[in-house]
Amino acid sequence: MRVATWNVNSVKQRIPRLLPWLDEREPDVVCLQETKVSDDAFAAELGDELIARGYQFAHAGQGQWNGVALLSKVGLDDVRVAFPDAPGFPDPASEPEGRAISAVCDGIRIYSVYVPNGREVDSDHYEYKLNWLEKLRLAVEPEADSTIVCGDYNIIPTDADCFDPSAFVGHTHVTTAEREAFDALTALGLRDVMRERWADERIYTYWDYRAGMFHKDLGMRIDFLLAGGSVADRAQASWVDRKARKGTKPSDHAPVFLDLDTAPDGDIGPVVPPPSRPAKVAAGSVKLPHSVGE
Q1: CA 4/CA 34 separation, integer angstroms
Q2: CATH code for the domain in which residue 247 is found
Q3: What is the domain extent for residue 195?
Q4: Which of 24, 76, 67 is nearest to 45 (CA)?
């Protein structure tokens, strides 16, 4: 089974790329984030095309903001929107935003999550992010061994997962509390299969649109498929589809793949195709083109 996660940064804008990508890569399960459409609009824009390709789908939308989806050729059972006690924003007691959806696909509970950004350290949104992650951990815990939590985590879990740790000092994504929240998920037995397979490689999944960051390969790894032990043991390949980030009107994220049991393209990776001229930068020599908290 091939599972992929992709923050498409507006699914309507990405349709001319998404449909050919489905045809080329043939994932069995796809987790999408930041769809930025309502449930009705998602079905209207994509429903017929997905059904024609053999996909069932479920979507948790929020109009022009957030939005997550699951597409599956291998079953879509027990669909759950959000998770128990998921907080809202700005009032934690309000209805949850469109940031999580899960279902059972061929015996595996698969989540598509779009973790809150956090905006600024110690802001209300930062506290919301930490609260949201803790409630996600509690929801995942009972089924962790047979679960994959896929999506945009908006966390850089280690210094090796960004082009220069010093560029992120004072920003979200790298704080101790955020990294501890990520580690709390892996403490459930969820495994970062990508890093297990490619321990010492330069791997990014997001590059800012500005300042030539993609062409210089100045990015960060914030998109993950964290797999429970019984699932991770089946891994045959895990890789970043950098090709999908190239060309006309791409998302600023690249899809990430996990192949279970068989690897249709072999044990490829970690980044396909690899960057042609990755920049070698001295610490502090390159600044972020914007705040990661925006």
Answers
A1: 15
A2: 3.60.10.10
A3: 2-272
A4: 67
